[in-house]
User: Fold this.
Amino acid sequence: MRVFILLISIFLSNYSYSQQTISGVVSDETGETIPGATILELNTNNGSVTDINGNYSITISSSDAILRVSFLGFATQEISVNGRSVINITLAQDLQELEEVVVVGYGTVRKSDLTGAVSSVEISENEAREFATVDQLLQGRAAGVQVTQNAGSPGSGVSVRIRGTNSLRGNNEPLYVIDGIIISSAGEDVNPAGGIGNSGQEVQNGLNGLNPRDIESIEVLKDASATAIYGSRGANGVVLITTKKGSVGKRKINLFLNSGVRMMEDQRYDVLSGVDFARYQNEVQITNYGRARYHIDDGNVYPILSDGTIASNPAILHDWQEEIYQISEHYNFGASVSGGDEDGSYYLSLGYTDQKGLVENSRFQSGDLRYNFDKKITDDLKVDARFSAFYSNLDFAESGDLIGANQSSVRSILSNVPITSDDMEEYGNALNTTTPLGWVEDFEDKSEESRFIGSVTLTYNLPIKGLSYQLRAGGNMRSKERRRFWGLNTFQGKAGNGALQISNLNTKSYIINNLVRFNRTLNKKHRINAVAGVTWDSRDADTKIFAVQDFVTTALTIQQPLLGQLNSTPLTTGSSDTRILSYLARANYSFMNKYVLTSTLRVDGVSKFSEGNRYGYFPSFSLAWRLVQESFIDKINVFDDLKLRVGWGQIGNHGIRPYATLSNYASDANNLYGNITNGIDIPLYLQNIANPDLKWETTQQINLGLDFAFFESRLTGSVDAYSKITKDLLQNVPIPLSSGFLNVQVNRGEIENRGIEANLNAIVFDKNNLRISIGGNIAFNKTKLKNLGLTPSSILIDGQYKDIPFYEGNIVSRGNIFKYAPNVFIEGEETSLFYGFKTDGIYQVNDPLPGGGLARMYDPSDDNPPLFWAGDYKIIDQNGDGVIDLRDRTIIGNPNPDFVYGINLEVNYKQLSLRVLANGVYGNDVANGNLLQLAIAEGIPWSNITNVAYNNAWRPEKPSNIYPRIGYTTNGMIAMPDRIIEDGSFLRLSTINLGYQFDKVNLYVSAQNLFTFTAYSGYNPEVTSFLYDGLRNGVDWNGQPNARKFLIGLNFNL
Amino acid sequence: MKTINYIKIFKTPFLVFLIMLTSACELEEVAPFLDKTVYENPQTAQASAKGIYAGLTSYNAKERGIFVINGFSGLFITGKNGQRISNPNNANLFSLNPNYDADSEAMWSGYYSVISRCNGAIQYTTIGQDPIFDNVAGHAYFLRAYSYFQLVRLWGDIPLWTELPSSTNLHKAKSSAKDIYSQIISDANEAANLMNNTLGEGYPMMFAANMLLAKVYMTLATNSSLHDGSKSESEYWQMAYDEAIKVKNSGNYSLHSNYQDLFTLSGENSSESIFEYQLSEQASNSQLGRNYTPWKYKVGMHFGWLSVHADVYDDHVSTYPTDPRIEGTYLHYYQRADNGADVKVYPSTGRNSFRASHPYLFKFAEKDKSHAAQYNSQNYIVYRYADLLLMLAEISNELNKDAEAMGYIEEVLGRVGLTPQIAYYGGQSSFRDAVMKEYRYELLGEGEDSHNNRRRGYTYFLNNIILPHNNNPNFSSQYDLTLNTDEARIMTLPVPLGEVSTNDLIDD
Assistant:
């Protein structure tokens, strides 16, 4: 077309009289030249287009001619030549034309026409490159979006909650949609292949491969009117991700490189040194058995052998936290090239990341590739294709096992005896513990993962103006293998003579969307943006587990399962398939740019439910009133934007595993029987209680929002208030053990979330090349259990026994410590409250005991031991019945925050830029399960404790009212004491990024997690150990330390 | 004016739309095995019967069950959770001062899981048509009876499930122990009628159900509160006799020649075995050899969780000083598997530390000292013929069949080259006490001690087990547990916390 115009213009110019040639450059406001811009002389046929460098030359008919310069996306300009021969033209962006468009479900709308609660997450390129997955970068950047992790190590699981807890199921993760492809893998990991002893596999990130570097925009859809178009998967909010495209104009090449170090945050447990531990043990041993265990001499510790002799060599003393946690390096580099013309564009990028963890054998490496292109095939037919490939290699050794006493790596680092000596073997104890070095040198947790996401979209403009048909086919393939190996220096490896577990996960999903769109403005008053269609979504997840033990040699670690002589878990496969057939429609209608109405409907049919309950209907309605367009507002002359939004919608959730409506008999690798030749008989057994009545969990949400802008849009913000009720909660509830099963899937109860969230952004200074902007977001949410669908039973609340329906959540550990449910779910209260014993200090000698008698000194030979000794926790006998039992439990804490917030600051001065991001949580409690042993001088010879627990332990001559006596234990305690409940509030300076722009190179330094302000005594107040378990919340059980990162980066734009 | 061909325009999307609609039928789920279909096919029905046995060998039911039953017998001490007298297990369960603890909860959960598997088989198997299905149902009845018997003897009143739970039927109040025993009797009788040998070798024959019934009647005989009003104690002894003698007279069983061999691989599935768990390293269904192998006795991991009270050992030795069963039951002097160094505990060494103060229970230990793996293969014998003979001796004594009673004792002791101790000749009461001790000498740790010790009531337990231990002349408060004497605490375990907190119909 351009060539054609050019030819015509050249042709015409040959026949002109009084010819004059004008030349110049057309560029945009930033100085970038614009190729392909059209220059026409008004009222003539003279014309020209700019070349690849934005240069043009036009021959005009007279020196007072008027030139019309136009280019798509820019305001057309008319310029009088006035005798000039060189005219450089700067085109301004056409704001009317290019008004910001926001991606919404199955389409886009103008920002002004948005009626729902949608947060756009803005993130600079340099910052995006610091994150491995998209969920992590949401932290602190959008109101009402809370991000928690189960560990600070690379590749660890991340949980994102939007507007509180909608469901008591485990997984409350939002739905991620990348370029229209639904990614259902948040919170998903390979199955554990059968643990050894009291162990558990920590989940890893299910969103690997959703690379933040290629992201153009992220929209977080929060209210029902925005998410109802996703129907049965919209209840937890939707994160819409659009990847980059090439733009029309000059080819762009970007190269980036950053590198830095990771180290532990300052938060750490202050445990006893080797010498102090020896003192502690001696005190215990002398009290109980009249002899010391260690001889201490001049800072050296010598074990005393059972025959009373002192070992000749001093023992080695350790500070395990110092020895195990290291400073590690990481780097990241990549490149992209993009470009395009009016017919289409391309974007190609690749990247590589290498991140080492806090312990030596922990590392995450990944490579990724993306190719996006779009092309006009004909004037009416356009194709848009997007492909990405990702591969990663992760050694997750830093996290180790989750559960268990000294069987978890973190617990081993914290509580392992800080003294080692060959002479100590005779103290080998029932747990056969090994040193934490075993977790570094003799443990591997390697995952190899690849993911391919691709989609092809054909858009055909139908011969009715504004009407188009779109066919999108896309898929997402994820393949992961995780191998975990325990060598002989770990508890598990010692138990099994080497142990290897191999777990695989292969998921394949595809979607086919058939959409008809209508987008048109009629009579300049009515604007309609509508979409309707049918989608088919199919997802197959195949799992494999396999485990071997008893290794001939452990030298090859994860490489050769054949070396394991015992198949402790024979190869077992599993599959779960889900199909969803959906019909959807949305209409967005705007009248006079003032009143906007959006209505959506989705009908989902899901294979997980039995026939009568299979289809769900999810409607929504919302209205926006752009007050700023009203003359009475305009007259005030204060607002640059003012929009009131109100919406209602119903959304659903079917996030349960398939086949729950059926009673499934199956074989299970961990449930085998022997036979008379010591071989295997494979049995079948019933795995679950079927619930044929399972149906949708439905959420109704009302949202009221106000968007505003003042002072020439230097102050912008929005406030949203919402209320949502989720009914027929899908829950995997614990049931009486006597049923023979541990839980059952049911629809039960109602949960309500109410909240207010706000964000405010202000440009506080913008003069003389200095621009300072500051922003923040805050979200208050209260979750209330409206109805549990249970019969009332008696529970102690605020000092009164009340008959209220309630139930307890899942227990934390299978051992004897923390073997109870920390959370209780009480009708009318907030969710997941901490439930346990209130204490009132420590029993002092002669304090009255429940049920009579006075506290006396501990005496192991006492024939009639009292309920409590002096120096024990003084657990309050709430009902005064003289015994401490389950009836004395009450609410002792609340893991739900009062609010979560994020603050960002951006300063730009000439070529210098500074971005600071902080995020915080306020008002939540954390149950720090680690204190159940670390903060008590239990006296056991293989477990280290904190300094305060030993030094300030209750002693008759130095009675404490905080720390119990030496020898006290929480082992076997039936409920959680309030002593482990801590304030989990924190404010974290999560990112500081300082950059300088040299011509085409941007140099920056950045720090992550620089400071955390908190009163929490554990490693990381932000950690939740049981990420995707709705019935265990706010618990830190062997939580990992958080990492602090420093990096320096270079970014070339060529 | 251009005519728009709407049909052409919409053809493609319309066609796709139609395809979508027709594919809706794929929304139906298909699972591989369902409850009803499993019991229609002989192969899958038999596999489900084996699933019940697999449930019994789960870690919860078996390893933890053995720990609880022995721990609550008053005869053992443990180093689990600390080599010290005050570790939580010693302070609670092992001192007969039971609290909520993880092991007893796991055992409860394990046995109820077995019961639910039995209920599924009983509910869906059609009997009277095919011996294979009859046998599947028979084993289900037998194992349900066995599981309830294991539970009721430890907990007393417990929930009684005889059907599978459903999503609307999950809570069950406690039934009286008396009702539980009625169910056990009815189930065991069904089992005795239905069981045949179609499940193959290694599974118990119907006589295991008779032996179970004999044990039940013996338990009822000495617990009048559990009597069916119309029956007397002697009638129960007679019923016990009738069932026990069926087993003997079946001719299927005899004593295995070598006592110690019973606790090794070569003694598996011997003629003495009436009911035996098939454990194998390959099936990964036993960690008995890890949990109960003494310290450093084998190369692989070893916990040595059960030691026998020193006075229990002393009593055995003083009664039968030359008893070969001593060597099969206890371990106190051995060489370390890793470096050959001597390890001595009481009585091979003085009582100078906690661990050294008691002999280990040796029966469940892995006997192969080079064994390095976590799982092992040695079977666990639940019921054996020697136990039956001792039962017959006890019953016969109660029924005043003195000569017959002595015959059984002589048969059991004859295998190990011994003759009955003098107490057997001191009249009915003296014989009774002697046979109650004989169970211990012959069967210590094998699963019945806790029940045998309590079967004759609180006073018998107090005077014959608890006080002799607490008051024994070598008692050391530093190394020996003081057993609780409070009747309200020592006779039954508290219903586990996990049950109380989830069951709407049980408060304590």
User: Anything to note?
Assistant: Residues 131-155 of chain B form the longest helix (25 residues). Chain B has a mean pLDDT of 92. Residues 288-378 of chain B form one domain.
